[in-house]
Amino acid sequence: MDxxxxxxxxxxxxxxDEGEVDLSKxxxxxxxxxxxxxxxxxRDAAAKQTKAPTAPVAPSSGLAP
Length: 65
Fold this sequence. Notes:
Blueprint: E1 2-4, E2 9-12, E3 15-17, E4 20-22, E5 30-31, H1 36-48
C-alpha cells in the first residue's frame, strides 16, 4: 500500500508476501478509507522509519489474523 500522508490517501497497488511482489488481493488498485487515528499511527511510524522511504513501515509478521 502506498500512502500519501499529506493527502491522507492510501492506495493499495500490490501485495508483498515472503518478499515476493504480487497483485493485491482484489487484483486491482483501489483507495481505502483512512481514519484520523490510523493516519496518526502511520505518520508516527514514518517519522521513526530508519530505512529507505520505500521500505514497508508496518510489514506483517506473515501470520493470518
